[in-house]
Amino acid sequence: MATFWRAFPCNKAELDLGLTLACGQSFRWAMVPGAISGVLAGRVWRLSQTDTHIRYQVIGRVGDKPTPSRPGRKNQKRKSNTPLEPNNETVQKKIKSEKNVDTKKQTEMMTQAITSNTEGTKISKVNTEDTEEVTLKADPGLMEDDICVSILRDYFQLDVKLTDLYEQWCKDDPHFKQVSPNFTGIRMLRQDPVENLFSFICSSNNHISRISGMVERLCEAYSTQQYELYGVTYYAFPTVSALAGKGVEERLRKLGFGYRARYISETAQYIMKQGGESWLYNLRTLPYEEAKAELMKLSGVGAKVADCVCLMSLDKTGAIPVDTHVWQIVNRDYKHKLGTTKTLTDKTYKEIGDFFRQIWGPYAGWAHSVLFAADLRKFQERKTSPEKKVVTKKSVKKNKKSR
């Protein structure tokens, strides 16, 4: 089977895949050898990157006819809770086939693929006795490839110039300036509201790896579309109608969802009564406060989950989800401005959100996600590494004069 990789320009300062996909926004991306894999827009993806390009591969579509497993390999379910490497070194490794292509040849292939002339289609191939054929392409050429790039650009919101936002946040917030050099390229995903909502209902009193496991079990139990490759099964996210069916709460309780089982069932039933998934999508057209108020009518959705959905799938860039984690950041790093609070009340919640919106502006929710990620335990080793130098026009001119 030929494996096709394609690439499009994107500086790592604009998008760091390893940080963005592992900081608790989405829970269905997992590590595979040399890449990050997940389901998005009905397709099964593998993503990787260099400092200047995003590499992507569509290995199938959920709902397609399953592919027979490779002989000699036991069937296994995809484990979406496999932690992504926090330092993003994995996506910098050379892409290998499942039988290990020679590293030197892989490097040559990737270089050719990314630097090939976009006016024509240049394909680099390698065949060895113990590997499958691997093909990389930089030029999309076909309509499907254009669609794939469009999907990724929308999902990662690449129309937003992230480096400009970082520069402004650094000017407005000394603490952000101190933390951000080791956490560049973190941007908000534009997720499907259905998956985003039900995933965060699962997040109540939970940590990232456990949430990932719950979301995967939810997909295994109620997804009607799947794709199998070499014994690994990929699932589309369940529809609201499937989660609104009879016996959902009881089944999810048996699967370990606890009290969240009732929240999922009741929320799905409520959405169906409002007209189905279109009701949820239409919240994108409402002002932030109205959209948040509508979400908080749902079972198991408080202010924090509502703000997560507003920020991550409803285009409300100023939404600030405040949990105990963010509250601790405020008390530790901003107490001289906001004061120390003993408990996180509704009043305190609003004050924290308003405080950050005043400092960071219209994209305050994006800036908040950078500090949130920087405070996660799995990313702490980045703080101990030497601080990255911020490249400016003045520093470039100074270096030229010293030569």
Report on this structure:
With 403 residues, this protein is of the alpha+beta class. 44% of the residues lie in helices and 12% in strands. The protein contains 19 helices and nine strands. A seven-stranded mixed sheet has the order 2-3-4-5-1-7-6, sandwiched between helices. The chain has a two-stranded antiparallel ribbon with strand order 8-9. A hairpin with a 2-residue loop joins β8 (226-229) and β9. The longest helix has 15 residues, at 208-222. It starts with a strand and ends with a helix. Residues 66-141 and 389-403 have low confidence and may be disordered.
Helix-strand blueprint:
Elements: E1 3-9, H1 17-20, E2 30-32, E3 35-40, E4 43-49, E5 53-61, H2 103-115, E6 123-126, E7 134-137, H3 143-155, H4 162-172, H5 174-179, H6 193-201, H7 208-222, E8 226-229, E9 232-235, H8 240-243, H9 248-254, H10 260-273, H11 277-282, H12 288-295, H13 303-313, H14 324-333, H15 335-338, H16 346-360, H17 364-374, H18 380-384, H19 393-402
Parallel strand pairs: 1-7
Antiparallel strand pairs: 1-5, 2-3, 3-4, 4-5, 6-7, 8-9
Helix pairs in contact: 6-13, 9-10, 12-13, 16-17
Note the quaternary state here. Answer: single chain
**Outline type:** globular
Mean pLDDT: 80
First and last CA, distance: 51 Å
Uncertain runs with pLDDT below 50, 5 residues or more?
66-141, 389-403
Order of strands side by side in the largest beta sheet? 2-3-4-5-1-7-6
Number of strands: 9
How much helix, percentage-wise, in residues?
40-55%
Structural class computed from helices and strand pairing? alpha+beta
Largest sheet, strands/sense/barrel: 7 strands, mixed
Number of helices: 19
Computed CA radius of gyration, to the nearest angstrom: 22 Å
Sequence of secondary-structure elements: EHEEEEHEEHHHHHEEHHHHHHHHHHHH
Classify the beta-strand content into a percent band. Answer: 5-15%
